[in-house]
C-alpha cells in the first residue's frame, strides 16, 4: 500500500528543505518540551562515530514512534536522521558534536583546520508501527582550508556555528571554509537524499 506522506521526527529546517526538494509531503513529529532528547546524543565511552550515529538515529526513531502512539495520529512512515562529524585518530576522540559555546566552537574549528574529516549521517524509516526502523548510513569526506584565528572568530561571530555538529554548516557561510568534498552534499547538510529515497521507495511513499 502506498503512503501519501511521512512524519519527519526532526526540527531541522535543512531536512525539511531537502524533503521538499524531492517532492515528499511530510508532517512534523518533533520532540515536545517534556522529552529529554539531548541525553540521547551523549556519546558512550569509546564509541565509534558510525556506531554512535546509528544508535542515536534508532533511539530517536523509537522515541518518535512512542510520540505517534501518544498523540493517536493516523499512521504514516516515520523518518529520523542524525549527523555527526568525525576526525579519526584525533586526540579528542572520533566524535565532534555541537559546540557548547564560542570557546568550544573555536576548539573544534581549530582541530578541523587544514584537515579532511568525515561527516556521517544516519537516516532511519519506520515503515509500520510494529516494525523495527530500517537505517542506512552515508559517509562523506570534507576538506577544510587552513583557517586563521581571524577567520575562525569571524565565522563564530556569524552565529552559524552553533547547533551544528562540527561547529559549521556547509549550506551557509561555512561553504567558504571548504575547498572540496567527496561524497553527498545533501548528506553533509543532514539528510542524504539518495539513501533517503531508497528507504522511501521501499515504503512506497509517493512524491509530488
Detailed description of the structure:
This protein is an alpha/beta fold and 208 residues long. It has a single domain, classed as Maf protein. 34% of the residues lie in helices and 20% in strands. The chain has seven helices and seven strands. Strands 1, 2, 3, 4, 5, 6 and 7 form a seven-stranded mixed sheet that branches. Helix 1 links the parallel strand 1 and strand 2. Helix 4 crosses helix 5. The longest helix has 23 residues. The two termini are 17 Å apart. 40% of the residues are buried. The model has no long low-confidence stretch (mean pLDDT 92).
The CATH topology is Maf protein
How large is the share of residues in beta strands?
15-25%
Rg over CA atoms, rounded to whole Å, is 17 Å
Main sheet characteristics: 7 strands, mixed
Total strand segments: 7
* Contiguous runs where pLDDT drops below 50 for at least 5 residues: none
CATH architecture: Alpha-Beta Complex
CATH level 1 name: Alpha Beta
* Count of runs of 4 or more consecutive helical residues: 7
What is the multimeric organization of the chains shown?
A: single chain
Overall number of domains:
1
Structural class: alpha/beta
Mean pLDDT: 92
Shape: globular
SSE run: EHEHHEEHEEHEHH
Estimate the helix proportion, in percent: 25-40%
Distance between the termini: 17 Å
